[in-house]
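Q: Can someone sanity-check these two? First one:
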Amino acid sequence: MTPAKDAVIAVACGVLMADSGAVLIAQRPTDKIAAGLWEFPGGKIEAGESPRAALDRELHEELGIEVEAARPLMRLQHAYSSRTVLLDVWKVGAWRGEPHGREQQAFAWCRPEALTQYPLLAADAPIVRALQLPEQYVFSPPDATLAQLQSGISRLPSDALLRLRLPSLDDAAYREVAVRLADALRGTEVRLVLDRDASMAVELGAWGLHLSAARLYQPEALNTEGLKVIASAHHRRDLERAVQLGCDAAVLGNVGVTKTHPKAPPLGWTGFERETFGVPMPVYAIGGVGSADLPAAFSAYAQGVAGISAYWR
């Protein structure tokens, strides 16, 4: 029987990560909806079944493996013309057995950056973006000097994003710091994110652009010139606006109490998970968090953590 159009079908799916960094995708069999398209393996969560139990069962049924280690990656909702799915996505880091198509489906191992070469299900697009992002997003201290930033690079996570946030500088001074910082980052895997106009970011070869929550509602927010875009969000409305604009990710907080917002009530991990539930976009947690909080962030379906003081002590 075909589900009602307004019904939400809960699905657990897994991203198997090989030691090489490649992930596994499977082709939908000819007897299923959207036959021939590719997807991350998984299936419907049965009544009374937890997402993790469904993940274990589905990957055994489809690929003949036993999941040994997995953690939440993201939880997103997607509306097709005939149905709406809520994908509970898990990153699978260890399993027993050699994956093979028990339903005679084709499958392939693919680097995250090459996933766009396959015709994937539309619902899986945010998963691809999540796999192409690091787990940690570092903001520069707002009053940092160039020398302080340069000397701190070696202490940053090796593949982090680094937002240059110096609100007191005019555009000319900000550009000068950005030029020198970009030069200091050469030879590292740290990727530079700027927060002024998109043309400056493109000119300087920055990885991406960061939009404040206020800029999400300004007309020029759409003029990002093909850059990767991350948005600041304070609540669900901001997240939905970022999705509408096609942002690649968002930062939501404050999760904990911070010196910069001592009177603002923190979301906590429960609040973070509530605000991001079903949002089809990777979301970092920010506010009083750092590397040590990654396990809690993952449990709340965050992409990872973002922060300032935790990375520049």
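And here is the second, same format, sequence then tokens:
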Amino acid sequence: MAHKTQPSFMTRSAVVVLGALFCCLLWGSAFPFIKIGYSTLDIHSSDAFSQILFAGVRFTGAGILTLILGSIGERRVLLPQKTSWKYILVLSLFQTILQYVFFYMGLAHTSGVKSSIIEGVNVFVAILVAALLFRQEKINAGKMLGCLIGFIGLVLVNLVGNSDFHPTFTLSGEGAILLSTVAYAFSSVFMKQFSKKEDPVMLSGSQFILGGLVMVIIGLINGGSLNPAGNTLSIKAVSVLFWLAFVSAGAYSVWSILLKYNTVSRITVFGFMTPVFGVLLSALLLRETSQLAPISLLALLLVSLGIYICQKA
């Protein structure tokens, strides 16, 4: 296809729908595949530094793939300049290191279903941070309603499995997942600011590599291992790592291309499907069907509805 016809092609409804759903499917698959990776490599929930090493290897690979895919898509080599590193350092801290250290540690102490729903709240946190702290946009009644509905869903999912309806909330589990959403919110605001001056795909790929290498070093010097049980690294384990790297690189690259040729609201409204895919894939691949109780499904519905209302507003 000629390059000059690409913009009109990328604005077609079928391309937008399929492309955005493809991204959400990839992001949703990360929840169960991380837990599968822990199981395959025999990384226990208490082995925090092996979890950090696991994440570091994933994101280093994701950064390399992002730069390769971005260079192919833009038909030029994407490499950071000297002026780019101050932005890359900030993004790396929030988007990769803080967000995913908390995310990986939290996922080891709670279910994939619950994690995927809590992560869906990152849309609301990002809106509040952008509006109240950075004044990048205004909060209207629709956005506040969406935030309220989403947080009600967050509360409900913590009631699953408790006959006396006392919320199950631990700092090492659900608390860590929530902190990862806060880090994501700040990284989104910073990316919006920095992408006005630098290529967003280059920034993302570079910060993935930097953040991933930092996490690898932290994991290794503290005794982390990708085979703590001393077993040979299996093909399954390598495949899981490659898939998780592709999830970040592939989804972000496609999402960025869609955003390049379409309005932000037209694309981001599909984001509500990420927690939906996360719940369904966790239930299917991890056999967490007990998490699909009526109250859990209601929580998922509320979070998805809240995201949709915010995007419409």
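A (reply): Looked at the second one. Confidence is low (pLDDT under 50) at residues 1-5, 162-166. The chain has 13 helices and no strands.
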